[in-house]
Predict the 3D structure of the following.
Amino acid sequence: MPPGPLPRHAARTLKIVIAIGLTAYVLWKTDFSSVVAAAAGADGRPLLVALGLVIVDRILMAWRWIALLDRDAGPLPPSSRLMRIFFVSTFLSIFLPSGLGGDAVRAWSLSRENVQGSRALASVVMDRLLGTISLVLLAAVGLFTAVSVIPVGVLAVAVGAAAAACGAALAVVYSGGLERLLQRASMRLPVRLATPASRMVVALRAYSRRHGALFFVLLGSIAVNIVRVLQVYVLGVALGIEAPFFAYAAFVPLIVLVMQLPITIFGLGTTQLAFWWFFGQVGVAEAEAVALSVLFLGLGLIGALPGGVIYLFNPGRDSAGARVL
């Protein structure tokens, strides 16, 4: 018999080992003391600008998800409660073994507010999908400006990936044929999974009637990732890195995509490796590139702290149980 999937604890341990291994390798190759010296010498004024951009980033991300929730499909909790769910799930995602853990917490928390589980999960899936599409699109556009330092083959792959991502998203939301195919597939699942899977397909397809919402959320997703490019650029200024802006525009969306791969904890290791390799293409010193990655991860942690404060001082335990999908 073929081996089954790794047990959950084994998968978590493997991710921790990969994160430690990749981080240790990058620090060994770049000299840990040089990385520390580069980070310690950062200019404080650009760092304050980067912190302000984190606030903009998180507000846009929260708005993006809330805009995907359709009040016409049923009652929703007040906006203040939705904001709490978003920020707390963002904070808890730091401690979860998968990059999708925060999404799962957000969907579960919303279902506890008497929102049907399939509807809650569909909003999170669409949020993640549109965010990924915006990343791929920005990466493809950015690579056109970096053609002098990136092989043409990589550029072609990026453009192809952008087209494939857009096509897949449109098919999921707008294709009636794919809906029928997925519904038939759900009927073959065990009884306890068939109904939730069927309702999930219906919930996703409901977005095909919300053209305006999807368009503005996609614009919001693009804005979020432009803000992230600016964050890294400002951090680069703080470190004295003299890379051209087009390098940040081309590389940061690709790096964020790498960070989202569920192979380590909180993107540790993969982030350092991605910054090291990409910015090395434009002559950035290895220690400075790794210091840039550490500061960027630090910004992510700071952006999650408001959710931690809310979670600690306003637990908001609810009496309502989660509805069945």
